[in-house]
Fold this sequence. Notes:
Elements: H1 2-14, H2 24-28, E1 49-50, E2 64-70, E3 84-86, E4 89-94, E5 98-103, E6 109-114, E7 133-135, E8 138-143, E9 147-152, E10 158-163, E11 178-180, E12 183-186, E13 198-203, E14 209-214, E15 220-223, E16 226-230, E17 254-257, E18 262-266, E19 296-300, E20 307-312, E21 328-331, E22 337-342, E23 347-352, E24 358-363, E25 371-374, E26 380-382, E27 403-405, E28 419-420, E29 427-432, E30 434-440, E31 454-460, E32 467-472, E33 479-485, E34 494-496, E35 500-504, E36 509-514, E37 520-525, E38 535-539, E39 542-549, H3 554-558, H4 560-565, E40 574-579
Parallel strand pairs: 1-34
Antiparallel strand pairs: 2-40, 3-4, 4-5, 5-6, 7-8, 8-9, 9-10, 11-12, 12-13, 13-14, 14-15, 15-16, 17-18, 18-19, 19-20, 21-22, 22-23, 23-24, 25-26, 27-30, 28-29, 29-32, 30-31, 32-33, 34-35, 35-36, 36-37, 38-39, 39-40
Bound molecules: calcium ion.
Amino acid sequence: MNRFIAVVAASVLASGMAQAQVTEDDLKNDQSITTQIVTNGMGRHLQRYSPLDILNKDNVKNLVPAWAFSLGGEKQRGQETQPLVYDGVMYITGSYSRLYAIDLATGAELWQYDARLPEGILPCCDVVNRGAAIYGDKIYFGTLDARIVALDRKTGDVAWRKKIADYKAGYSYTAAPLIVNGLVITGNSGGEFGVVGEVQARDAETGDLVWTRPVIEGHMGTLNGEESTMTGTLNATWPGDMWKTGGGATWLGGSYDIDTDTLVFGAGNPAPWNSHLRNAGTPTEGNAGDNLYAASRIGIDPANGEIKWHYQTTPREGWDYDGVNEVVAYTDRDGNKRYATADRNGFFYVLNREDGAFVSATPFVKDITWASGIDDSGRPIYNEDNRPGNPADAADGKKGDVVFASPGFLGGKNWMPMAFSQKTGNFYVPSNEWGMDIWNEPISYKKGAAYLGAGFTIKPNYEDHIGSLKAIDPDTGEIKWEYKNNAPLWAGVMATAGGLVFTGNPEGEIIAFDDETGEVLWSFQTGSGIVGQPVTYELDGEQYVSLISGWGGAVPLWGGEVAKKVNYLNQGGMLWTFKLPKQLASN
Ligand code: CA
């Protein structure tokens, strides 16, 4: 008892005044509070737009490094984190499930947490982590062994640690968790291992499970420890038992739309990749073989985990066009409340915020082969001869007809988040122009083994570029400008009220663009490839920009001919922070 009081007293003394607590209001108002960043997406609507305009088109040339922070060790690999900023501290996650607290003023390390990962973890696509979540006095992040960890944000001590799923079955976790009304909400990763995509909500204080919602039809959800409702209708869109290992990993996490009180999560590819095992017919025969809710966006009630709506971007998906890409809530020029999402399949979709209903879709990459367009109901108009062939039709039954499909399976856009500018009304989309040879093979499910039934080789579509940053008018789908990059783009994008668009490239440059023309106004070489997410904030009246550098992610591992083209790039692991010095702000 005495010892307990002594510990409490010591910690109160150590923190001086009452400890600052991240509240629901902090999360709700994150976009407008420019001195802190407490959400993934720089605001719950994932716009990655800052109202700061201290830094602008005229003075961005004066942006200089303030400090840099090395992640250290031999564990380099891809660094995809989005920094959080709160109460004088910057928090970042690193490869191999590490989390760092850094003094915002000096860049000095305050503490570091390294998850002890077991042998035999099965991350499909590099050992990345995309960021943490912060609430109350805790900071939360997911680990590669499919756990969620809550740490005391002042000390880094573990408050609780819970298992999301069994890593031995191929589950892992890399996305930033989401906080809504005192719940910590997570997805899961492992779509290439025949896992089942799920969303889970836990009490942020205790880590106790509140509800679960699998996203593949036939599976049961839970609420307060008891079965709640079945997802979809058993066997309505899946044949036989295929739904039991049906994929749909919710690996990029989700967002919360406060205006409609809806969680929005995306679901990845159905498993296995060989679509003929999931749908023997053609997609023009109604929705009997659509494999819901894989390759879909799903609206979920945060109170109980019930599905409110869904929109499937690629029914009977067969090219690894995961439907996970972020859904950005915005208001269009006519005042309509919309969602926008740029899918792996190459189309930029606008949906209605109230019910997820389809509004429009336009291509955001060139040379899409698998569909000629999206019809008025939101369903793809398939080019049937671009579906990889059925191996059962081959003479030896071992390899179906090879097709060249574009975009390649790494997508017209992959995980790297786009930005929406409230100033221009345009989206800034990091895309890639590439295709693939793809074919199907026989496969049967085996726990912890890759469950693809497909082979593939990614290829560039153009000699001079793969990466393509595009400014897109969401009302028309018109591409206002394009910046071509030699290597594939794999970093997040940010827009600001100062008229700037920031991103990084694998060649190592952090770049600031003019939001209206695409002109490069400033760049800085960071020494390793950039696959992280830029943020900006205000400290003592000066504007700062932070972005992590450290080459890796899926491209070097899965990029086929493109991986060979960029294998000269060096690994790293350095968080860079830039500032506009006060005396140069008016220049
Ligand atoms: Ca996938």
